[in-house]
Design brief:
With 189 residues, the chain is α/β, with parallel strands linked by helices. The chain has a single domain, classed as Rossmann fold. It contains six helices and six strands; from the N terminus they run E-H-E-H-H-E-H-E-H-E-E-H. Helix 4 links the parallel strand 3 and strand 4. The radius of gyration is 16 Å and the shape is globular. The two termini are 13 Å apart. The mean pLDDT is 94. Bound molecules: flavin mononucleotide. The site of flavin mononucleotide has 15 residues, from helix 1.
Length: 189
């Protein structure tokens, strides 16, 4: 359990740059709930951390400035939350590319914060395959991902006009995730 005094800090991100992204709605909702729990939240957009498609040749020549900045944001906050769409039963290229670049930054940006993941999709399975891929990938590179499975779908009926989840079960899962994110800590690891 936590050995870090409040206030904790968080960054929240969305794995879609689409205008009107439903994952951005989820990201905003989780930010609001983290703030309500006393967390100092910084809202980030991956659009502000541009990175070319990863290729080891590029890496040898030049690490994109955005990768270094985002890595530092991960290292300097207690909590990272990422809402991501599911593409073809897996992760969208934006998320895969971001993880590839960050996994090459030193010291590791994945070993300080506690991670929460979730997603919204147009299908009723609500990104469960994407969440499974993401959890496995993050875990393999040393991240501590909290257990709540926050898959939301279908997107057309998921949120009310204020961007809050309609289903009580989803509201309760967000609450559970916020409790996990604020109570678990990497401590000195
Ligand atoms: C290339 C592509 C692949 C997709 N594959 C899936 C999928 O495997 N499962 C799913 O539920 N939705 C899938 N979708 C639909 C997305 O859930 C939907 O477009 C969603 O709105 C994307 O999230 P966003 O609004 O945050 O961009 C796919 C969409 C695209 C563009």
């Amino acid at each position: 359990m936590s050995d870090t005094p409040f206030p904790k800090t968080a960054v929240t991100l969305c794995g879609s740059l689409r205008r009107g992204s439903v994952n951005e709605i989820l990201r905003r909702h989780v930010s609001r709930e983290l703030r309500a729990a006393g967390v100092d939240v910084t809202d980030l957009s991956l659009g502000d951390f541009e990175m070319p498609i990863f290729n080891e040749d590029l890496e040898a020549e030049h690490t994109p400035e955005g990768a270094g900045r985002l890595a530092e944001a991960f290292r300097s906050h207690d909590i990272v939350f990422l809402a991501t769409p599911e593409y073809n039963g897996g992760l969208p290229p934006l998320v895969v590319n971001t993880i590839a670049w960050l996994s090459r930054q030193k010291p590791s940006p994945f070993r300080h914060a506690v991670f929460g993941i979730g997603g919204v999709s147009s299908g009723k399975y609500g990104t469960i395959w994407a969440q499974s891929h993401l959890r496995e990938s993050l875990t393999k590179i040393g991240a501590l991902v909290v257990p709540t499975l926050l898959g939301v779908g279908p997107d057309s009926t998921a949120f009310d006009a204020d961007g809050a989840p309609v289903e009580p079960a989803i509201k309760s899962k967000v609450g559970q995730m916020v409790r996990e994110l604020t109570h678990f800590s990497r401590g000195g690891i």
